[in-house]
From TrEMBL:
This is DUF975 family protein. Coiled coil: none annotated. Keywords: Membrane, Transmembrane, Transmembrane helix. It comes from Extibacter muris. It comes from the Bacteria. InterPro entries: DUF975. Pfam families: DUF975.
Length: 250
């Protein structure tokens, strides 16, 4: 079993060895996470709130001195906002599937390679030029879909599945042509007995995230995010070596 303190120490050394490219890639990955994971939902929710506001406002104006024709325009305007919200949400989802997830795999590839060599920021695009773009898109989409479906049952099963599939983008980063069934099976095997420890490792960075919040994200950009990504890349490398030793990957 890996040691959390040792992984974090090695991760810190790895990203400091190639500092600026690590900062750049970690920043790209954090933007992907914020924009593609929550941006679409936030825009949709905001638009829906606007639609509700305008609809409610039209009811209020109906009882005032405004004409019926004027107030009748508000529901139509709300419907337009709703349609725009749906289109934005759909566009954001498609962007996440066909671009965001592939960049995530490229980012994981960068930090795995960064353990043994100096890598440029351009490595984040490796998923697009691997020759297996379609397989990466499919596997990452199914990962997100399965986690979402499990989360519909209860929050806890969704969280458990997210940890079970934690290694999938790392596996794809080195084996972009691997079938999704095999990638899921290997990730599940790697994470057996490690989910709680991985959760604790996630929690161990909270202090750094709080410091990043206090500094308006400056510390997150220049230290925390590359530190986190490099540390979890070390965890994957440990699991990969363990998998070779146990013989379930070749």
């Amino acid at each position: 079993m890996w040691n959390r303190v040792e992984l974090k120490m090695r991760g810190k050394q790895a990203f400091q060895y190639n500092y600026w490219p690590c900062v750049g890639v970690a920043f790209i990955m954090s933007v992907i996470s914020m924009v593609f994971s929550s941006g679409g939902a936030s825009r949709s929710a905001a638009s829906l709130r606007q639609r509700t506001y305008y609809s409610d406002s039209s009811d209020l104006w109906n009882g005032a001195a405004y004409t019926d024709s004027f107030s009748a325009g508000w529901p139509a305007f709300g419907a337009i906002l709703g349609a725009v919200a749906i289109m934005l949400a759909l566009f954001g989802t498609l962007l996440m599937i066909f671009v965001g997830n592939v960049l995530e795999v490229g980012g994981k590839r960068f930090f795995v390679r960064n353990q043994t060599e100096r890598v440029g920021v351009g490595a984040v695009l490796d998923g697009f030029r691997s020759g297996h773009y379609g397989n990466i898109v499919l596997t990452m989409f199914l990962r997100d879909l399965f986690i979402f479906l499990w989360a519909l049952l209860l929050i806890v099963p969704g969280i458990i599945k997210s940890y079970e599939y934690r290694m999938v983008p790392y596996i794809l980063s080195e084996n972009p042509g691997m079938s999704y069934k095999e990638a899921f099976a290997i990730s599940k095997r790697m994470m057996t007995g490690q989910k709680l420890e991985t959760f604790i490792m996630d929690v161990s960075f909270i202090g750094w995230y709080l410091l990043g919040g206090i500094t308006c994200g400056i510390v997150n950009i220049f230290y925390v995010m590359p530190y986190v990504e490099a540390s979890f890349a070390e965890m994957y490398s440990f699991n990969r070596a363990k998998a070779y030793a146990e013989g379930y990957i070749r």
